[in-house]
Amino acid sequence: MHIHNLKDFAAGLLYILLGLGAMTFIGEGELGTLAQMGPLYFPKIVGAGLALTGTAVLLKSLRLGAADADNADRLNLHAWRPMPVLVILGSAVIFALTLLPFGFLLSAFLTVFASTLAHPSFAWKRSVLLAAGLTALTALIFVYGMGLSVTLLPPAFDLI
């Protein structure tokens, strides 16, 4: 048995480690049942699902037989660009910092728009349309559909 796809192998191993780490470090407590979930039920289920997904990805990356170096994907660390990762993480920080002062609509719009900057072929029109559409969709789902209690507009608009 040998590693046929090194990227899948590394991703599977990472998923397994993250899933097992989550299940281990979440701690002991009341899990509850499916009908009455305790506070640790969902995080433990997500950790287990991540570990199982990682196992499937890792097993898919392995092959029986002799190694075939011509067909094996090689992990190319020189092609890894950290800037898109930093932009995506930064967009999550933007959401956290702008939700209360700017309201949900503007905060979600800024978050999606900022995350589109990570794409190599950034286009203003496409980014604005995507941000507007996803903002409307998330407002419909979370605020109106699920009844999430969050202000849609900035607090300054409450005076008007």
TrEMBL record:
Q: Which residues does the UniProt record annotate as the domain DUF1468?
A: 10-149
The keyword Ion transport appears for this protein: no
The protein's matches in Pfam families, at most eight in alphabetical order, are given as: TctB (PF07331)
The UniProt entry, under InterPro entries, shows:
DUF1468
User: Does the record's keyword annotation contain DNA repair?
Assistant: no
| Membrane-crossing segments per the record | 12-29, 41-62, 83-109, 129-153
Keyword terms: Membrane, Transmembrane, Transmembrane helix
Name of the protein described by the UniProt record: Membrane protein
Species assigned in the record: Sutterella megalosphaeroides
